[in-house]
Every structure is written in structure tokens, then in C-alpha cells.
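Researcher: Please translate sequence to C-alpha cells.
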Amino acid sequence: MVQHSLSLSLSFADPNAVTVRVLYGSITVHMETFDCSQGARIFYGPLHCRDILSPDVEEKLFGPLNAHQIALSPRHPAGLAKEIFRHSKRGLILEVKDECLYATALCRTVVYHGPSPIKHSGTLLKEERTKVFNYKHRFLPSLRYTVDGRGFPPKPYALFSLGQPWGSDRPLSKNLVTVVVTYCKALNDLRVKNLPVYDELLFEPQEARDIRIISPTPTDLEADHFLNPHIRTTGEISSTA
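Model: Translation complete:
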């Protein structure tokens, strides 16, 4: 069983606290609760070469400078996961601001997202910051309806899948790499109200499916220059038209 890492100084009512849970199929391989006020980056591979990057270039290629870094484990039972990992080196960026959760897909692996493991997922546009969870204007109104007996408890998380969509005919937890990002303050509200928290992510792992990768952008090629220092022939980055 994966141990849940939690900062002793962090409260679940903290407006910047999130829990990131990474699943390979239905198996949790990483679970960590931390302060996301400086952002977080979920990626595959070694950290980039920070000593040769200017702050502006580093932020453009790999996200916020002080982001919490979560490296995906290479130990996946499905061989096709290597294709997901190979194109996920720039990563998925998470940010919390004003009680909202934002996500930015830097990687070439297509990142799907949604609020429910049953409803059909959407797609994060590459390198575009997207609001994926709104505590004040979406979660709290739904919570009030539930307390009044007019609905089901709202989900306290945002869901992501690398390279594979999901929907009513394709459970999220059967995908190869799933990321569940729980907004801790919302989860704490459900617990305070004694409302049940349903976990619908417990399905059998799904067999490998086709992985969708998009063509590299100029910034992908620029990032590769620093992710693969052994192939550099000069100290400068060639410009891309």
C-alpha cells in the first residue's frame, strides 16, 4: 500500500491544500497532500537542467519556478504506458488561486479532465491555463443543495487521465495513468457536514489502448534541448520559425 505523505503543518481546511493521488489502472502508486500555492508539476523523467536556464525560459518550458515536483514512477505493468511517459516530460501543471484549481498541459501526451469518473471527459488545450475546480461558485452552491436534501454530494476533486479519455462506457480507473486532485477544503466541508464521500475509482485495470500524442510545438523542441543535454552540440538554442 502506498503511504499517504502529509505535511504536519498543513490543515485540511487550508485554502491552498490539495491531495494528489496517482493511479496506474486501479492501483494507487503515489498519494501526497501539500500546499499548492506555488503550483505543482506532475511529470515523467529526471528534473530539467535548472542551472543553465534563465528563470523566464524555465517557467515557459516547465511551469512555475517553485512548483512542487511529482515524478511519475516508471514501474507500470502495461508496456504501452511507456508511450505515455515518453511524451510527458514537460508535465501537467496544477495551480491553486482564489479557491480555484487550474491546470495546464505542457506535455505532448493529451491530458483529459473532468469532474466525474462517469461523465465524459474533456480535453485540456496544450499550454493553456484552464480552471478545473471552482470551490466558491460551483462546489459550495452544490453543497448547499445537498444539505437541503435536493441533490447528491458534490465531488471535491478534479480528475485527469494521460493519453486516454473516459465516459459512461469507459470507466476512468481503467485507464493507464489517472490523476485525482482533491481540493482539501472541499473534502473537509463534506466531512464536517457528515456527508458520504463516494469513491468511484475502484475498477479492475483496463488493458492497453491506443495512446494519443500530438505533434511537438516549438517550445517542446526547446524543452527537449534541456531534457537531453547529451545531444547538444552548442551552448545555444536554435531558433524555430
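Researcher: Any highlights?
Model: Confidence is low (pLDDT under 50) at residues 201-208, 233-241.
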